[in-house]
Amino acid sequence: MISHRRDPGGWLVRWDSEVAAQAVAEGSWPNLTIVDFALERTLADPHKIQFADFDHELSRAQLIDRARRLADYFLSIGLKAGDVVSFQLPNCWEAVAISLAAAMTGLVVNPIVPINRDSEVGHILNDASARVMIVPAHFRSFDYVSMMARIRGAVPSLKAILVTGKPMEDCPFDLFDDVLEKAKPLIQPLAVDPDAVKLLMYTSGTTGRPKGVLHSHNTLFADAFKMHDALGLNSDDRIFCPSPITHVTGFLWLAQMPWYGDMLASTLRTWDVEASIALIQKYACSVMLGATPFLQDLVTLAKQDGQQLQTLRHYVCGGAAVPPTLIYNAALQFPNCIPWRTFGATEVCTLTVGPSSRNDLRFGAETDGRLSRVSTKLVGIHDGLEVGAGEEGELLVKAASMSLGYANPADNQEAYDEDGYFRMGDLGRIVEGEYFVCTGRKKDLIIRGGENISAKEIEDVLVRSPKILEAAVVSMPSKRTGEAICAFIVPADRATIDMKEIAGLISAEGLARQKTPEHVAIVAELPKTPAGKVRKDVLRVRAAEFGKV
Question: Which CATH class is domain 449-548?
């Protein structure tokens, strides 16, 4: 039964009683918070390294102490359960401490991707009614202190702004390190309902206005429960996760899984393939999470330097399209590793898991994984009726890791069907009984002369060419056919490619001639979100200009 109710912090959330009951029964929802796990792990082995990057190694006891001090500060300025603490930080120990401190006090964490600027940050802070904002002094040559000074007056809900690192000049805001030094550790964390909202994360906005997604302590643990079992993890495993902690994958694997799974996590503030290999080797990392470009860089450099990264057992690749050849090449380069494509969303976390053996690599390369601990529907694009086995349809899902809905309840209306299944907006087929193959986004369909054309189908053909590094296909307006096909192409290694060759690629694959792009734009790079997803909304705007010519 689906209803709406207020959590202890006052958030209006969707509640599916059947999903909740099943999740508790199977153990997906432990009815604990991350603090419960962190305190248990720290008591057992306080000096074990919990977090590492190139500049820091922090033990469990050190992280807990800093989180306790920050929790004391939050209470001292009058924050109460349900209040939002936003942060716009790179991958760093401070973000992990913020997550812990919020869980100690019943607060909601709101990670904001570091590339956002005045307009986006102001919108999110106001939409979230954020009480505290934490930013770096500088990151990637951008001055966050100046940005916050510019927008502070337009965000009336803010009670405090904290700055990590050392500002270049006199800072109008409190310094994060000073706050920790002055605060006294909170001895007893507050009692927090595991079904209360823990995370408010805004969607990356590849197709429109970002929406705030609400997750509870329990729904986040459901992902850890699934992945811990699927990857066969134990306390000897070590994580390397360069995915941004401001994206759901980074948050799950840097702030949640290390405490849940009793294991070290290492990361980088910014992606650097040489530094990544060094960290994987230094900490003997066995699991890596990252988007397609990370794996491409890793395979290229490892092959060049003869590195096999013997300790690496799993590379979980998602967030953007993953060419099958990349998975096969990774498996060749890393002989003990199972690289695999995964599939999910901020709203439902990880939906699929990869092969348990290198003997089944084709499932990791040629499908988006085995649907695990999730109920699904595949429905027709136009009629909404369930399609037959092997047929393409839109994916709808229910899972224990499903969010509690959107912060703006109006956003829920079109997002779920009458049975409470979340509409992924992704098209695909279920093959061999339980494996999902994503064939594109529903909004990526190009309706050319009345025919539905999948952008992903064309992209998959284009990236098989050794001359093409990346390709993104979108619609462009056409007076003759309504919509036409526009392809943005990033050439590989200074290669040149023209329309005739592209038409040949389409023809050679046996695709209809109508699927040949009418316009091709050669670009140095594709615009992307921090998660590595192509910003097709940006490309559609560009394509619309081409269509006017």
Answer: alpha beta
